[in-house]
Amino acid sequence: MIYGFIGTGNMGRTLIEAFIRSGKLKPSELIISNRTKSKAEALAKSYPGLRLASDNRETVRNSDVFFLCIKPGEFRNVLDEIRDAVREDQIAVSITSPVMVADLEAWLSARIAKIIPSIANAACAGNSLFIPGSRLTRENRDHLRDLFGAISQPLMVEEVHTRVASDLACCAPAFMAHLMEKLADAAVEETGLPRETALSLVTRMAEGLGRLLTEGGFTLETLQERVAVPGGITREGLNLLQKDVGPVFNELIRLTHAKYEDDIEKVQNSLFPKMKK
Ligand SMILES: NC(=O)C1=CN([C@@H]2O[C@H](COP(=O)(O)OP(=O)(O)OC[C@H]3O[C@@H](n4cnc5c(N)ncnc54)[C@H](O)[C@@H]3O)[C@@H](O)[C@H]2O)C=CC1
Ligand SMILES: O=C(O)[C@@H]1CCC=N1
């Protein structure tokens, strides 16, 4: 079975490396293409056996399953280019949330799946979000679940919940990293603690927190209870967070959804320009 990757930027590369490192795919099972050739060349050099295609059509022609690891605004160009090369028996996987499964089915004869990975998959952890298209057979679904099972916990989601699920599974690593950095910076500003020490402390804390939640039998709720002993210092901090942080996250979810709706509209206008008002 040959797996093609169109787009070897940040996420295309992350997926390729995760599949190879997990032992799920061998470099010789992969064929790749990227607009900026040097990026794909560097990847092919790092993994001998990995095949570099001269264009996206060659990637498609030579693969059984191919991934579209490109940004929303890049879909029209790529779909125009590959459309005639795509076969009905192929599986096409898009990793891009605002491109609708039905729209890809209208453009390509292949069996479509939308699977949104997370940067956490680079550590063979976290979820991948699986939105199957209507033409995927049961066998195709099992195949994709098995593939992504090597680097993540695949979770079936309704397309209507793609955005919010992606906020939690895929965007939140960045959100949480930002909060941790802010916490460390505040500690530095308020006390003069060396920044290096502050960053190391929060990083190790996150490592322990992850383990407690995944292997240590804690839930988010029990963890807060265990640390915030009545009358203790943590309680003071939690009281403040309860009051001030909640509304920020409501706003954040509203913002990601507004941007998502905007992206969907732009993608649809580019894929089906006649429908433009
Ligand atoms: N960064 C993340 O954690 C996640 C990103 N995604 C989605 O993955 C998609 C890609 O994101 P990134 O990899 O971060 O973007 P990126 O900009 O790093 O990579 C996109 C790649 O596509 C290539 N490209 C553009 N047009 C092309 C064409 N016509 N033919 C071949 N290659 C072409 C670019 O050269 C670039 O290497 C986005 O839609 C993003 O929302 C999904 C889940 C997680
Ligand atoms: O659009 C998305 O949902 C993904 C998650 C992180 C970046 N892109």
From TrEMBL:
Pfam families: F420_oxidored, P5CR_dimer
GO biological process: L-proline biosynthetic process
Keywords (A to Z) from UniProt: Amino-acid biosynthesis, Cytoplasm, NADP, Oxidoreductase, Proline biosynthesis
GO function term, MF aspect, one: pyrroline-5-carboxylate reductase activity
Reactions catalysed according to its record: L-proline + NAD(+) = (S)-1-pyrroline-5-carboxylate + NADH + 2 H(+); L-proline + NADP(+) = (S)-1-pyrroline-5-carboxylate + NADPH + 2 H(+)
E.C. no: 1.5.1.2
Residues at which NADPH binds: N56
Keyword match Lipid metabolism: no
InterPro entries according to UniProt: 6-PGluconate_DH-like_C_sf, NAD(P)-bd_dom_sf, P5C_Rdtase_cat_N, P5CR-like_CS, P5CR_dimer, Pyrroline-COOH_reductase
Database matches in PROSITE patterns: P5CR
Function field: Catalyzes the reduction of 1-pyrroline-5-carboxylate (PCA) to L-proline.
Family, similarity comment: Belongs to the pyrroline-5-carboxylate reductase family.
PANTHER family attached to this UniProt entry: COME OPERON PROTEIN 4, PYRROLINE-5-CARBOXYLATE REDUCTASE
Annotated protein name in UniProt: Pyrroline-5-carboxylate reductase
UniProt organism field: Melghirimyces profundicolus
Gene transcribed to yield this protein: proC
